[in-house]
């Protein structure tokens, strides 16, 4: 596999305001190469991703994760990524912003095992991997109402994401949810759900990065008050009887 990242990907990093110095470009290149290498080699025995083309990993996993950056402040913050899978979007974001405190929450043990392995390879600190379910951790005092930022990509419909994600958010914190495709109905329901869990939609940002300009957007929700203690309900209830 290539020892280098593609020129396209490097240009996209620049477009995002990343890799502005030679040192930063070298640091990011090395980290993303290691991440891709480990992802694709583990994927041969552990089901982590359907994407196996090296350039597609850069675009559809790394860049797509980094496309959340324009919706996020650069300052120090705490972020939890729910249903992170092989680390998306939380791990590329941590690589781009090493000063953030990132928690990766994932229900499948073979995926958290991969995450712990790749984090060690990347020598990252201030990053925690949790093998567990969002609807359980959201009720634990140490996690509830604590995070500046909650993210989740490709985990479930908006109503479920909001019900399970908003309880992690501190007041004034944000849920940053990437979405693609026709969202009209889901978004109307999502807005009603948000009201029930103390959040409100504040921005709907289109993704304009070359290569990802196919109707992707980043929905930004602000937590205005804490979610009622009854939320989140069980996963079955959230998905079968969604709020909104
Ligand atoms: N966010 C990753 C993975 C998406 S697949 C990406 O975009 O590539 C959805 C992931 O969410 C799966 O790995 C699944 O195990 C995890 N998941 C589903 N329900 C969950 C829950 N209730 N709590 C934690 N993780 C969950």
TrEMBL record:
Keyword set, alphabetical order: Cytoplasm, Methyltransferase, rRNA processing, S-adenosyl-L-methionine, Transferase
Entry binding sites for S-adenosyl-L-methionine: 83, 88, 106-108, 134-135, 153
A single GO cellular-component term on record: cytosol
Stretch forming the signal peptide: none
Molecular function per GO: rRNA (guanine-N7-)-methyltransferase activity
Matching InterPro entries: rRNA_ssu_MeTfrase_G, SAM-dependent_MTases_sf
Family, per entry: Belongs to the methyltransferase superfamily. RNA methyltransferase RsmG family.
Name of the protein in question: Ribosomal RNA small subunit methyltransferase G
Encoding gene, per UniProt annotation: rsmG
């Amino acid at each position: 596999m290539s020892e280098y990242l593609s020129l396209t990907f490097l240009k996209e990093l620049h477009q995002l305001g990343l890799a502005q110095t030679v040192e930063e470009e070298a640091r990011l290149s090395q980290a993303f190469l290691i991440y891709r290498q480990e992802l694709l080699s583990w994927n041969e025995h552990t089901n982590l991703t359907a994407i196996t083309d090296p350039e597609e990993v850069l675009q559809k996993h790394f860049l797509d994760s980094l496309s959340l950056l324009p919706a996020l402040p650069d300052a120090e913050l705490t972020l939890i990524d729910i249903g992170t899978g092989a680390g998306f979007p939380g791990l590329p974001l941590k690589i781009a912003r090493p000063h953030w405190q990132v928690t990766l929450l994932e229900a499948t043990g073979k995926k958290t095992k991969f995450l712990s392995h790749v984090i060690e390879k990347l020598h990252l600190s201030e990053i925690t991997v949790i093998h567990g379910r969002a609807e359980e951790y959201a009720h634990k005092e140490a996690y509830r109402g604590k995070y500046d930022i909650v993210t989740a990509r490709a985990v479930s419909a908006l109503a479920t994401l909001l019900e399970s994600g908003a309880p992690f958010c501190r007041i004034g914190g944000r849920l940053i949810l990437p979405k693609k495709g026709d969202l009209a109905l889901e978004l109307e329901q999502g807005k009603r759900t948000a009201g029930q869990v103390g959040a409100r939609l504040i921005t709907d940002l289109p993704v304009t990065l070359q290569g990802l300009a196919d109707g992707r957007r980043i929905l930004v929700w602000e937590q205005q008050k804490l979610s009622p203690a009854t939320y989140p309900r069980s996963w079955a209830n959230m998905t079968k009887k969604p709020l909104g």
